[in-house]
Amino acid sequence: MTLSVEQSAAVYEKYARLLAEGKEDEAGKYIGEQLPNLPEDLRNKIIALMLNQSLIDEARELETIHGIQEAGLAAAEKLEELKKNLKEDK
Amino acid sequence: MLARRLDDEALAELEGTPAGGAGAEVTPRAPLTLDERKERLRARLNAVKGKMGEAHFNKLARFIDEAENDDQTRSMHQTLEFYEPRRRRRGEEPPPGPPRPDDVPEPLPPPPRPPRPDASDAIPPPPPSWESRLDIKKFKRVRDIGPGGRWAGGFGTPRRFFYVHPDAPRNPDGSQRRFTEEEYQELIRQAGESSPDEPTVGRLHRGEAPRDPFEINKREYIGIRPKSLREIAANERDQKFFGEFMANLIPGESADLFARAMQDGDLTERERKIVLYAQYEYTKRLSQWEKMSANITGKHVEQAMKRYPGLEAAVRLNDSTGNNFAITTKVWKEELMHIAMRKDAGDFNEVYESQMKLAKLHETRRFKNWDGDVSALCKRAHVDSRDYDAVFNMKTMRGRGETSKWLKLNLQKDLTGFAKITGALGLTRFKVHRTMKEANRLERKKQERWLSPTSWTLRDVNKHEGTLARVMALTIGEPEKLRALTKAAMRNEEMQIERDAGPRTRAGTNAEYATAARGELSQAQLQQTFNRAAKPAAWNTWSTAQREDWRDNSWDPPELHHEGEERRVGMWAQIFSAFKNWLFNDQKKKLSVA
């Protein structure tokens, strides 16, 4: 069942009220529950925003992992070099 | 704003017209099908393939394949943009312009590397991997003495230098590899460091910033206890100015930093360092501003007006001596705070030092004596001491003559009865003579002399008053300030200036949510807003169709756009914006235009 504009306005007001009270998790849950009933164009916009955010979060995580791996490789290379130097000294 | 731009472009594509409006002379493009959009997205994804892991690449490719509508393809474009700005920050060539969502150019092959000016063919171009690992601090600058020897080319020939690094691979003949100045600077830039030739102590000695601009030098913050972010968030003024300071400190990145800090506290070590530096610096500048603004009075405004007569036109719009220039003083204090929030605190420090020194100089015995003498002279001449500079022009012979004549007329005009007779017999002339003699003495005191400490004091007072007046005239005399002052005076309202106040603060966003929750976009309330809105001059002559067209396409009430809404951060806030825009665009079509 798709909500009318008036009903969507009521959803908007409740969503804003929850945000104003600082209940972001509850607001997110509420908008998630109402999402299938919202008009299609609005629904598409909200889904696109959510998708965008999740992709950015994931990309950021991957980049962090990539950075850690690079740092690890550099450390391993240094260790190898030190080992080699020690062997040469012996 | 981005969403609005994308909407315009999507609309323009659907209609086959350019997004710039009817007047824009751009060749119309045919609307793209979903498959064509996907193709472009794939090309763009391939261009940044090297920037992400394989799993992530596959996932994005799957999202593109499964995209069902334009919103999803637009969202993918925004996601891909995430990789490109970071690439620019790392020092690679920026793209020629902001990529349009559906107009993605094919990735160009990398430009050929220009030949090094003095690198011989025997030196093979080194791979970038080892170059980037070189420790910048180990580079050594060496003078390039050519085959002609040290003095080749004669006197005045510029010296040439190159750089060597002990860890760089050697040339085939065993000699050290030479780096040109350009290569060296490029490596420094890539490493994100300043030149090691510039020692930190030397830079500080010259009053410049230390090597790392966000390094906290404890000596600069003696006695400063930085405000915590919690304290800043609890105070509306602090929140506003701290946001402005952060925005100036790292332009374009502070919104992202705030968003991450607010959502999940996910900040890098360097970002934490930046925030701490901002806390220290903000607290320091705020305490300086508080100290300084306590000393600012209407007297400063009057002095500035004397030095810069053009300023008077702006000041007198709102203020007079009666209210002790209260409005201009308030505006000036607020402007000083904005100056203090700039990244470069040079102007603010100049004003602060002048103000502090001036306060001290005004307390000296010599200045007080001088001030007392001026007051006594003005009393003798029957004029207000604030008009001293206007009445006494003692620098030239002609000026002195005119001053004498004016004083005589001024003294005579109030005389009546017996006093008028004695005045005519010579008493007025005697009084003018005494006044002029005293004025001459004061004028001589003002002239700087080696052995006159009073003249030194007056010189310093003059200098610092001049600095304050100059900055005040420059700040208040800016066109947008003048416009705001005039508007406020004509409307008898508080002065309001729009400025970029940095990332959206939590309190501001919450206030907007609360307004929205009270039915801001309900049909009745929106109708009221529409009825109150300023309509075009020809509104009454327009047909209903014309009015509806204006309502649907032009009307965008500022009441619904809260300050800084385009800087909203976080996904929930963006969903709120999208919801609000959608609802407003739908609701306004039902409003009566009668």
Give a written overview of the molecule.
The complex is a heterodimer of chains A (90) and B (594). By secondary structure, chain A is mostly helical. In chain A, 86% of the residues lie in helices and 0% in strands. Chain A contains 3 helices and no strands. In chain A, helix 1 (5-20) packs antiparallel against helix 2. The longest helix of chain A is centred in the last third of the chain and has 50 residues, at 40-89. Chain A is rod-shaped and about 85 Å long. The N and C termini of chain A lie far apart (80 Å). The model of chain A has no long low-confidence stretch (mean pLDDT 85). The radius of gyration of chain B is 34 Å and the shape is flat. Chain B folds into 5 domains: 32-89; 130-197, no CATH class; 220-350, no CATH class; 361-491, no CATH class; 506-590, no CATH class. In chain B, strands 1-2 form a two-stranded antiparallel sheet. The longest helix of chain B is centred in the C-terminal third of the chain and has 30 residues, at 417-446. The model of chain B is unreliable at 1-28 and 86-127 (pLDDT under 50). Chain B has helices at residues 2-15, 34-47, 54-66, 70-81, 83-89, 128-133, 181-191, 200-205, 229-234, 236-249, 254-263, 269-293, 298-307, 309-315, 326-340, 346-362, 365-380, 388-391, 397-412, 417-446, 453-476, 479-491, 506-517, 523-532, 544-553, 571-587; strands at 140-143, 161-164. By secondary structure, chain B is mainly alpha-helical. Chain B has 26 helices and 2 strands. At the A-B interface, helix 1, helix 2 and helix 3 of A face helix 3, helix 4, helix 23 and helix 26 of B.
